[in-house]
Specification:
Length: about 280
Amino acid sequence: MPEPRVLLSGLGIPESPRWHEGRLWFCNWIDRQVVAADMDGAAEVMVTRDPASHSMGYSIDWLPDGTLLTTGDKVRRQEPDGSMAVHADQRANEIVVDARGNAYVNGADFEFVAGAPPRPGYIKLVTPDGQLRQVAGDIQFPNGMVITPDGRTLIISESFAGRLTAFDIDADGGLSGRRVFAEGLGPDGICMDAEGAVWVSTGGFSVARVAAGGTVLQRVELEENRAPFALMLGGPDRRTLFICTAEWHLADRAPANLERLTTGPRTGEILALPVEIPGTGRP
């Protein structure tokens, strides 16, 4: 397998990568930006968040009509004039939107950055008519989510449990049939390929392609102290694996690492790696 190439560097923490309309979109944490970049690394800032009113953590996805949604202290949508309006009064971490316009958001109500004791998290559903309800609980620090191409299954990263968990998506958008997809990982942002495998971080400085049941089909090692935060299969044929990384020291607690990333040099990079099996599903 070829070595990953650096597509972009000098970022805060690149997160929530999405392949959308021929470009890689992602959230540039610390600098509070939504950025879009082409395959040559030419980048454009699409949204800048107000640090006085918005929380740091956020993710992005689009409604079927092309409206951009972002998460943070609330779920917001981008209006035609570029302004951001409240879509749902819900603090949230990650988001994924299905083909019907159902937006699944997740979170855990404790101050992770401050090192507070963890609490179980949740997945909530924002329906197209604006209704909000919880559809899953007891999630051990919820992170990235994917929806299978048939729209019938949602897979979520439970970062503190080191596993991927799958749910059936019911006709009304609810979740049921909870089960383990894979264990023994360090999952954050994830993506799915056309063979039903999931690209996921391992908990160290590598990423892996994992089949249902946990079999590791492929592994990509990264440089020491370069942690993968999220993954996306994109490019013109969706055969490029984008790996969002930044410097991270496993011996340090998360708040210490985040303090270093906030006040120190911008170590964030997005790597690009050709792969054989194309991406599918949502996002």
